[in-house]
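Components:
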Amino acid sequence: MKAFLILEDGTVFEGTSIGSTKDMISEIVFNTSMTGYLEVLTDPSYAGQAVVMTYPLIGNYGITPDMESKKAWPDGYIVRELSRVPSNFRCTGTIQDFLKEQDIPGISGVDTRALTKILREKGTMNGMITTNENYNLEEILPKLHAYKVGDVVSKVTCSEKYVLEGNGPKVALMDFGAKNNIAKSLNERGCEVTVYPAGTSAEEIISSSPDGIMLSNGPGDPADCTSIIKEVKKLYESDIPIFAICLGHQLMALANGAKTYKLKYGHRGGNHPVKDLSTNRVYISSQNHGYAVDAESMDEKIAVNAFENVNDKTNEGLSYVGKNIFTVQFHPEACPGPQDSGYLFDRFMNMMGGTK
Amino acid sequence: MPRNHDIKKVLVIGSGPIIIGQAAEFDYAGTQACRSLKEEGLEVVLLNSNPATIMTDKDIADRVYIEPLTVEVVEQLILKERPDSVLPTLGGQAGLNLAMEMEEAGFFKENDVRLIGTTAETIKKAEDRLEFKATMEKIGEPVAASLVVENVEDGVKFAEEIGYPVVLRPAYTLGGSGGGIANNIEELEEILANGLRLSRVGQVLVERCIAGWKEIEYEVMRDGNGNCITVCNMENIDPVGVHTGDSIVVAPSQTLGDKEYQMLRTSALNIISELNITGGCNVQYALHPDTFEYCVIEVNPRVSRSSALASKATGYPIAKVAAKIALGYTLDEIQNAVTKKTYASFEPMLDYCVVKLPRLPFDKFISAKRTLTTQMKATGEVMSICDNFEGALMKAIRSLEQHVDSLMSYDFTALSKEEILDKLEIVDDRRIWLIAEALRKGITYEQIHAITKIDKWFIDKIAIIVEMEEALKTQELTAELLKEAKRIEFPDNVIARLTGKSEAEIHDLRHEHGIVAAYKMVDTCAAEFAAETPYYYSVFGSENEVIETKGKKKVLVLGSGPIRIGQGIEFDFCSVHCTWAFSKEGYETIIVNNNPETVSTDFDIADKLYFEPLTPEDVKSIVDLEKPDGAVVQFGGQTAIKLTEALMKMGVPILGTSAENVDAAEDRELFDEILAKCGIPRPKGDTVYTAKEAKEVANRLGYPVLVRPSYVLGGQGMQIAISDHDIDEFIGIINRIAQDHPILVDKYLVGKEIEVDAVCDGEDILIPGIMEHIERAGIHSGDSISVYPAQSISEVTKRKIEEYTKRLARALHVIGMINIQFIVCGEDVYVIEVNPRSSRTVPYISKVTGIPIVPLATKVIIGHKIKELGYTPGLQKEADYIAIKMPVFSFEKIRGADISLGPEMKSTGECLGIASTFNEALYKAFLGAGINLPKYKNMIMTVRDEDKVEATEIGRRFEALGYRIFATRGTAEALKEGGVKAIPINKIEQESPNLMDLILGHEIDLVIDTPPQGADRAKDGFLIRRNAIETGVNVLTALDTAKALVTSLENTDIRQLTLIDIATIDNR
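Structure:
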């Protein structure tokens, strides 16, 4: 079946329908990872967005147990080509079936490079995937303009708290749309990880007396999360060590008076160099964010730049003055992507007093 | 960390002659690194014995020494030039071994010279099997169970412990030379004994066999601050067991999930960190196909063939960055020259698929075993880029220059299912074609995978291609079907064949439906950033990114494709210099080529680079878009010449000599007319089409005769026939290599072979010099030792050669380059071959005369006259030096190849000996070729009857040098009659002790074996020659070569070589 991708600027790409055949409007973003399509599909940070994979051959190793959450989150999936026969010793199915099961509409056969260039030049924009050959641009384009990703954190967070047992430090993980490997990385280091829904109050967390608090990644515009930001501010004021990733990093910055802004087309991929400003070492990181913290807007007395993107010099991490708090924009938990910055979990462990 | 300003003058060591396992990739890496060093204001001293390279050019380095790569030479050079640093990681294994040897001897320290880039300690840790294993164990990186042995006994014991099969890897050898897989004790003993001898340190690793596992490589970079990145990973379609140089390789890996990908990436970074590498490094893995278990196979702490491939596959210039790191820069300080927005500490992301195919030499070595093993056999490779795997594979296939254009090109249709299943067990160069046939016959993916261990994903891709063949054969050719066929890169001619239409019909149908090639950019970043580097590949069914540039005059330079015997790196030298010359003249330059190892496919050589197959259709798509003002074909060897006619049909003017005149040199009748008109004699001969006609001509002329196809490359298919029987056999072979052109039969003349390259502007000619071959006519010019200036011809003859060259160049209306081969008998001069194009000898003669022939020819092509370029027309005055070009062979790598020299070219590379005397030049040339004698002063002679008188004379000279001569009965008698002591020895087929025992006894310096002429030449003595070569003994099959060698040995007292800086030669 034919499918169409209609962009906010009126560009239309024709391709073949994959997955669900429902019409879907979302924000179109691209990811440059060459492996890890399943981790991308199951990363809750993509809620409200359709992902374009710039690598043209997707689905080569099929569906494996490497899910970063229970389900797939993107509102759309845009690829050049899906592999007809997947091959991997852990493969349990094809990506074609997976997209159908997960009811994700998608389109294949798209010149993803041309699409990526449009997004790069004009910035991230909204779009719609449809299988309706008789689509009417005049009707659709206003809808595309009007679309907002909106409050997606509440959609992706867990409904109830749960615990991953461990003998080490107790960590409270705020789930704003956490990837599994965050909890797993801590759990593997011995931590007992309690995962809390995003709406949990700071009081509840603090009263559980955790040894550390982890603020997770998540989808959407951080500035929209006003009530969460208030709670994060309270967590900041407690003296509990905090480590935050991605959305968590942005929320902590917002809670402390800094501003965030939308990047033209975001950073999504597994090849971004970030420099640890305390050592001048550069690490290749996994990234997935459309917003960034405006480091200039942060009061230097509260937090200082800890990491910076080597390419565009955007902020990649903050270290809070006089506090056991550090936050990063990139993803030390990898999955997909390079594991080079996994040492940050060890740093967090040390802040919590070691493995006990 | 900014750059270290203590480094001011750097010695860069190149890799020497092109041999299998060490080819053009090191010229590419070295050239890029030298340019990178010079851009930092450093003084670069270059040492490489290979005159065909671009790196040995005065444009690339400040001081250029084309001298043998020996410890003595490096020592002397360091004392002469006093560099403060040596960069050893760019010259392949040869350069690295040399530097290590000197470091171990303490020479660098004594002379205040430091090794920059990766340290000696690191190199040792990575290269020494024991240290490597200990290091891997220390950081918990798994390696296959293995033991380093120094004798056969220990190897057998260990193999029994871990069980057969076992893999054998000699330490410090090139391209896995001497290695292999042993399935039982007999094989183990044979391979191990051989490997121990070939290893520089007498060590061989005996290892658990992990054949069948996935073979994955990572190219990684690390700087002095500990920052590391991976440039690219690559997956070998052929699992472990086939040398990666002979494997079909795809980038990035296709069948690895993120878990496997990151697991190996992290491992690679851990390894280079532990080894403390500063620069580029290659890590090879074996990954179990059904678990996460993996083994580190090896680490190369230097640039390599794989790093060249990774650079071209990603656009990331590994050698350039490695050079900057050697100077102290960190990755985040080095700008990405492609995007100019990102830095070298950025991992390239591909949004396309790259396929590399090896170019194997079995078309040259018909008798050789085609089996692929851990011993590399490929002479070169091609790479292709597409947005799908099938397309990349199809493009790579037609880039091979091997008369293949699809998965139907090798015909296995006659084989039954069972026969195919049996044949699949044998791993050879035609395996993917056989798999295609297996799929056509309904053999399942599972069965194919069970035998070949090739991942099902790749088998399915082959199946998609096979299904398309079937669809084209059986279905109506709709626009949809055509579009899909083009998306996976079926060439028009193949579609035409399958659909029963003409190629023109397919072409027109495509254009009618707008199915045309589009071009995408290789930008290192999957379009995330706007890049400025115009490096393109084609796809179908996508938007075109290339903007047709206007303003400047635009020239298309056609490259020479994969390196193969007969068409080597020389043609890349010519293409690159031609491009630079056009650029200087204000032209916009476009290069089309498909060889990832070369300088011409570096992203900053031409204004635009199209990484594409060199077929008429692929070139036409570029022409349609770029509309060049002209094309140059005379610098890209036969590959480019073959495109002349097609280019003319496209309406592209051929710059320089016109196509009709190229034809006139190849068309026998036209050419005879021209020779007659010019009053130039040539050996009598005729053009024929069948064996019957050939025999008639041969009998009329009288045997021996030379038989060859027209439009030959490196003498392919050329043979000397001495009987009707030979003619039948040779014509059969010629027809097998698919010749559409007629066959030439000429009287074979015995005389001195002379060669000239000349530039002609339509009126005047310029001959930089006359070269004379040491071997008499009958041995291919590329395999002959070539001497400049010619030593044994008279002034009258020289003038005659000059005059003939002038007449011929004018008569053929040559504008640009011409290469002519003459035979001189007494004072008679005959023309045997004319090539109205650049030749193999052009880089060599340019360098030793100081005359930049390619830029000159390019200027002439543009319209300048020789006189206005500051040269006096005619034969230039002779240089003050004697320069000898020595062919270098890779026979030990090709099992079963016949090594006897003849009219068909067999050498893979060359080296130079340059000195003020003939004897020193000859000595240097032999030294450069690795013939470092005497050692044991034992030799074997076995010569054909007609050579016996001459052989006696040679024997006498060897005897005088103290050599003990063993000879087969007939030869021994002849020697004795001539008063030379000879020890008679049984022939190989006679009882022991015989020749074979002698050879295997390892105390023989040299075998002189001249086989009879004719079809039997390959058979007689074949075993002696093969065994000698495989045990590392020098074998000479021409008495002229033997004479040259003995002359050189008589002059070995020239210990203090005089080193000559080529950059100072200016013969104007």
